[in-house]
Amino acid sequence: MYIRNAAGLVVIGLTLFGASTKPLQADAIRAATDDWPPFRILTDEGFTGLDLDLIHEVGKRVGTDIDVVRMPWGRGLASMQTGAVDVMTGLAYRKERAEYIAYTDTPYYACETAFYTPASRPVSITSYEDLQEHTVGFVLHSAYFEQFDQDTTLDKLGVAAENILIDMTKRGRLDVMIGTDCQVDYYLKTQGLGDLIVKTEYRPGNTVNLFLGVSRQSEWAERVEELNTIVKDLVDEGVVDAFARRYYDNPS
């Protein structure tokens, strides 16, 4: 198996992303989050983005506060296993995750998987088999599509966060990176990187549905049906689409 861990980068990520020490209200929903624009955007004032709009509206409708806890994606998943946090957003469904996460029934957003290559020395990827010839960067603990996720024959390089992956690709340190188009395309556009990183011809053609998930160790797991109804209502009422337009129509 050729998965390699960029250890130094992971250490940096874990150092920068500390968990909140703010005292929590007993009934507050503790939401683990990381920086993944436009869904979760870290600013000087804290987090904003589509997912933050969503979870705060859920809190409003269920009648409780939201306590946002900043941590890397992998630590967030580990915290969901123990119940140290209550919810996460932006979750792709995976059977192994469902053992400790109660997914809401309705996905609130849908994306697709894409591969990207540095424009300075682009490689030709026209089929999945072409990936065998290159090192493929990915974000640790992420779920892309089953074939890639389970493939132990590819030369994969795992890093802690999407921005690290994009920076390595921009600098030509990676031949190819995998990403979720609704996030990577937005990031490339807002950061002015569209001329430095380009999509490959090959598209897996899969849909990546994004869900709100509740830790099965959380007291909120007992109210997951209520959360199901709220998320479905937000989608059906067009509220989530309105949230998305705030960011996609006016990227900054």
TrEMBL record:
SMART domains: PBPb (SM00062). GO terms for cellular component: cell envelope. It holds the Pfam family SBP_bac_3. Keywords: Signal. It is found in: Cell envelope. SUPFAM superfamilies: Periplasmic binding protein-like II. Residues 28-251 form the Solute-binding protein family 3/N-terminal domain. Belongs to the bacterial solute-binding protein 3 family. This is ABC-type amino acid transport/signal transduction system. It comes from Roseibium alexandrii (strain DSM 17067 / NCIMB 14079 / DFL-11) (Labrenzia alexandrii).
